[in-house]
Design a protein that fits this description.
There is one protein chain. This protein has one domain (about 5-120): Double Stranded RNA Binding Domain, CATH 3.30.160. The protein contains three helices and four strands. The protein has helices spanning about 15-30, 35-40, 80-120, and strands spanning about 5-10, 40-50, 60-65, 70-80. α1 packs parallel to α3. The mean pLDDT is about 85.
Length: about 130
Amino acid sequence: MMNNNIKTTNMALTPAISQYIDEKMASIEKFINENDAKNAQVQIEVGKTTRHHQSGDIFRAELNISLGGKHLRAVSEQATLYAALDDARDEMVREITSYKGKQRTLFRRGATRVKNIIRGIPWKNPWRKK
């Protein structure tokens, strides 16, 4: 279970908004493995950015997640609060999957290197300047 910290700006936190945020965080939690989810710190900030905008209120949702020393961030501004939360959630899912893909690539690269060392194949660094 992730530790959620909700902050509001220029608006009140109603039970309906709090429940909606909890539902969105639960859907994000399935993209994070259990060990990271226990230690994950989540800061959620929602609010109105302006009170005098010509086209009405503009809502902002910001999600910050700390996963084992890595900080992931997603921000969205939309005409409704729920649309801003949905957009920020989608952006956070992209950030998490990108982070996991990078971790997997680094692990596989290291595993390939170890396997080649065991086989006795000399390792050549493809990124080394010639």
